[in-house]
Amino acid sequence: MSETNPYMMVGERLCMDFINTVSWRESAEKRREWFTGYTELVDWCIHARVLNGQQAKALLLKAEEKPAEAGGVLKLAVEMREVMYRIFKSIAEDTSPLEKDLDRFNEFVSRFYRKLQVIHEKDQFTMKFDYAGDNLDMMLPPIFQSAVDLLVSKDDLERVKQCEGDPCGWLFFDTSRNRSRRWCSMADCGNRAKARRFYKKEK
């Protein structure tokens, strides 16, 4: 994960990029949390195109009025991300997720899907989360939906991988034709691994 680009998006799925909002996830010394406040959560969601500028402005104004509620949403977002991380990490490792993580994931299903509605527009039916424009957690349902869509698509799950760069820990959806991708980014962790191999060879 790049230190110069804090919004490096390499997961190939919204839920993967959301999970990757921790730099050097598996390092106790270098680990860095991106969501240090509600403002940072909103800022990332603009970059990820979950929110537009007008929505973000409304949310930040309401967050100023209700800081405790905004703090609660931030805490919920981080918890949701970590549950998603543990579940998808188990998939990447071809192991079963913990029952407590699946239970918590399903609690998020119950929470968010109460707002899901079938909408008829432009001569077609679509499913949308019916959120008012200033609900402080309105960015979470579409991110969560991305995780659900990936989890229930069995063939796609085989493409969920974890970067082999130690201690990166980032997850990604492998879109390569032969499913050979190994790094979150060849320009980042891939280059570091290449440099280490060259150094060992020269040594």
Query: What sequence of helices (H) and strands (E) makes up the elements?
Result: HEEHHHHEEHHEEH
In order across it, which strands form the biggest sheet?
1-2
Question: Could you tell me the number of beta strands?
Answer: 6
What is the alpha-carbon Rg in Å? 18 Å
Give the % helix: 40-55%
Mean pLDDT: 87
> What structural class should be given to the helix and strand makeup?
mainly alpha
Strand content: 5-15%
Shape: globular
Distance between the termini: 27 Å
- Main sheet: strands, sense, barrel: 2 strands, antiparallel
Task: Provide a short characterization of the protein structure.
The chain has eight helices and six strands; from the N terminus they run H-E-E-H-H-H-H-E-E-H-H-E-E-H.
Q: Explain this structure to me?
A:
With 203 residues, the chain is mostly helical. Helix content is 50%, strand content 11%. The chain is built from eight helices and six strands; from the N terminus they run H-E-E-H-H-H-H-E-E-H-H-E-E-H. It has helices at 14-19, 38-47, 53-65, 67-92, 99-112, 140-151, 154-157, 186-202, and strands at 22-23, 32-33, 116-121, 124-129, 160-162, 171-173. The strands form three sheets. A two-stranded antiparallel sheet has the order 1-2. Strand 1 (22-23) and strand 2 (32-33) form a beta hairpin. The longest helix is centred in the middle third of the chain and has 26 residues, at 67-92. The two termini are 27 Å apart. Residues 1-5 have low confidence and may be disordered.
